[in-house]
Specification:
Number of helices: 7
CATH architecture: 3-Layer(aba) Sandwich
CATH topology: Rossmann fold
CATH class: Alpha Beta
Number of strands: 7
Distance between the termini: 35 Å
Strand content: 15-25%
Helix content: 25-40%
Radius of gyration: 16 Å
Structural class: alpha/beta
Length: 228
């Protein structure tokens, strides 16, 4: 799928504070079949749920980065009015996890600069990292990604949601990206339940004011999609 270019006029037309959410998704060959189909359906449901919520609709901006034997921005940061739903993703290749995270962070930094240049406020960004295996890309890129993420978390400039898919997900690697809370493993293919929970969490944040302490997440809702 070609990269989607989003015009920056939206930042002028809609000056509401933004909640930037970067979805960094494993689309390696092991995700082929039901997992990739359910992932695509869950992401599209996420867009639909954001679209229906009055507060989240104006605030949420979402980008999608996929990683397999390469990396690609499927969807640049955009609000739901401009973002396009995913028709499908081809699962193929290896798991270049570090490279994917670094691309997601680069894309986020570019968007944050646009916010600053246009005077648009934004909430602490979110990074959703989902994978069903262990990384087999560049070890140096993986270490750089871990260092970048943990520094941003320590500086209170990022919230991460590390999610393992299936029994082969390397939870120890995901834990390296999350120094303040353990990664979670998805119950089966409960992508729809996860993204429904995520959309409600975005809505809750968008009802607060930028600079406030982030609202507490719905921990009880985790039981609907996570192995606890």
């Amino acid at each position: 799928m070609a990269r989607i270019n989003i015009e920056n006029e939206d930042l002028f037309e809609n000056p509401a504070p933004r909640v930037p959410v970067a979805l960094c998704l494993d689309t390696s060959g092991s995700m082929d079949g039901a997992p990739i189909r359910e992932l695509v359906a869950g992401v599209n449901q996420f867009f639909d749920a954001i679209d229906k919520d009055e507060d989240a609709h104006d605030a949420a901006e979402i980008c999608i980065v996929e990683f397999n034997s390469g990396t690609k921005v499927i969807q640049d940061f955009a609000g739901v009015d401009r973002a396009q739903r995913i028709s499908g993703i081809d699962a193929r290749g290896a798991t270049y996890l570090g490279e994917g995270v670094n691309l997601a962070l680069d894309t986020l930094e570019t968007r944050k600069k646009m916010y600053s240049d246009t005077g648009v406020l934004y909430y602490q960004p979110w990074l959703v990292l989902m994978t069903d295996g262990g990384p087999n890309g560049s070890a140096a890129e993986l270490e750089r990604a871990v260092e970048r993420v943990t520094k941003m978390i320590g500086d209170k400039k990022l919230t991460i949601f590390p999610i393992g898919i299936g029994p082969d997900a390397d939870m120890s690697v995901l834990a390296r990206f999350s120094p303040t809370k353990p990664p979670l493993r998805l119950q089966g293919l409960s992508f729809n339940e996860f993204f429904a929970w995520l959309s409600k969490s975005v809505a809750r944040v968008s009802q607060s004011s930028p600079g406030d302490a982030p609202p507490k997440l719905d921990l009880e809702g985790l039981a609907g999609w996570a192995e606890l």
